[in-house]
Amino acid sequence: MKRYSLLLATLFLLVTALTPVAAAGDSLALRATYRVQAALDHGDGTLLVRSDALVTNPTSGSISSIVFNLAPARIGALDLRAVKVDGLDASAVVRDQSVVVRLPGPLAPGASTTVRVRYTARFGDHGEDKQWLFAKLKGVITAYRWIPWLSREVAFDRDNIGDPFVTPSSSRVEVTIKSERSLSYATSGLRTSVSADGLTQTFLARDVRDFNFAAHPSYHVSRSWAGDTKLVVYTKTLDPAPLLRWGKRAIAHYEKYVGPYRWPRMAIAESGRSAMESPAMIWIARDTPSWNIPYLVAHETAHQWFYGAVGNDQTSQPFADEAPTDFLARHLLDARRAPRSCAGNLLDRTIYEYGTPCYYETIYIGGGNYIDDLRKRAGNDAFWAALRSYYSRYSHEMGSTTALLDAIDAAIAEDLTTHYAKRFPRYY
């Protein structure tokens, strides 16, 4: 069953990789480290970026082009200033939220090249259609997927809250941001230096699949510890106490049941519009009602395990991160409920195939309940051991729906092929 399901999953990924964007490119098999310099003008709401990606080709074939994901290409009024490869001018095309760089010559197996991308972008001033991912709202700058990052071409538009991204993990990301005024930054990395005038700050992150930040001139900063993890909360209007409390509870709970948190620090930052996850950081909207803080902190923190550490193709297999994430959050909160609509929907669709509200009710609620049903089938000890094994195996790599389900299946005496096929016919 395992070989058969893996074959089907592989064939499906090959097909779906081409469906959102015609003639889509794919650079997911490559590896890169990133060194980024940015000039941020908080007053004008603009960002000037110079990103150097040291890209290595670990495959057995030569590479003629490289695909970078860059969300500001869709939501940041992107102006692509220049692209260079090893210091030489190179041609590039912007398609949807991707920048596709044509290399001057083939990148041979085992070889490396440095790709420099320079661009300017403008932060949006509204929160529609995920504009808040790259926006200045109520004085808070939020910058998501703003570093040109190895990916494949995927469409940004979808009829739900699904995340249209897929990126491999990078072992090292160094980011320097210079601003025209003093700013407090919540980022995916640790601050390593700050200039004497406080306007230039450098951050370093390791083993992350994106690097995002939130910034405000006068964040209030609160700190605590969740075991060995430093928890730092950045707020303007939100009460930091419940953010700290639920952040600590969530980290402790997920470490107990799934495995260790993978970074030395986690930031929780107040944002202008919506909750969102990043490696080593989450955003919580400033207008979040107090009754919803526990769920949002629990859910976004669980993404540190599934999507942050264990990656997946969030466009074609949203079940692989949203279902175990919501399962964990509701396990912590003892808040499981039945779907309010779309019960029994297939769980193996892409984000482009679900409408609102079916996406949330199917993938989050229905998917989390499906995993909880597997827990009951396997028994607690076997189930949690399987989930820990999956997490350990795929941390800082790419997991998948079939890898997750097969890991759970291996912990159960019965063959679940027929059971899986009812909700995942693309794979089983």
Describe the structure.
- It is a single chain.
- By secondary structure, this protein is of the alpha+beta class.
- It has a domain at 27-213: Sandwich (Immunoglobulin-like).
- 26% of the residues lie in helices and 30% in strands.
- The protein is built from nine helices and 21 strands.
- The chain has helices at 2-16, 72-75, 240-257, 293-302, 319-333, 358-378, 380-394, 401-409, 417-421, and strands spanning 31-41, 46-56, 63-69, 79-85, 88-89, 91-95, 98-107, 112-122, 134-137, 140-143, 149-150, 173-179, 184-187, 190-194, 200-205, 213-216, 220-226, 229-235, 265-271, 276-278, 281-285.
- An eight-stranded mixed β-sheet has the order 5-4-8-2-1-12-15-14, with no helix packed on it. A five-stranded mixed β-sheet has the order 17-18-19-21-20, with helices on one face. It has a four-stranded antiparallel β-sheet with strand order 6-7-3-11, with no helix packed on it.
- It is globular, with a radius of gyration of 21 Å.
- The N and C termini lie close together (8 Å).
- The model is unreliable at 1-23 (pLDDT under 50).
Strand and helix layout:
Layout: H1 2-16, E1 31-41, E2 46-56, E3 63-69, H2 72-75, E4 79-85, E5 88-89, E6 91-95, E7 98-107, E8 112-122, E9 134-137, E10 140-143, E11 149-150, E12 173-179, E13 184-187, E14 190-194, E15 200-205, E16 213-216, E17 220-226, E18 229-235, H3 240-257, E19 265-271, E20 276-278, E21 281-285, H4 293-302, H5 319-333, H6 358-378, H7 380-394, H8 401-409, H9 417-421
Parallel strand pairs: 1-12, 18-19, 19-21
Antiparallel strand pairs: 1-2, 2-8, 3-7, 3-11, 4-5, 4-8, 6-7, 9-10, 10-16, 12-15, 13-16, 14-15, 17-18, 20-21
Helix pairs in contact: 1-8, 3-4, 4-5, 5-6, 6-7, 7-8
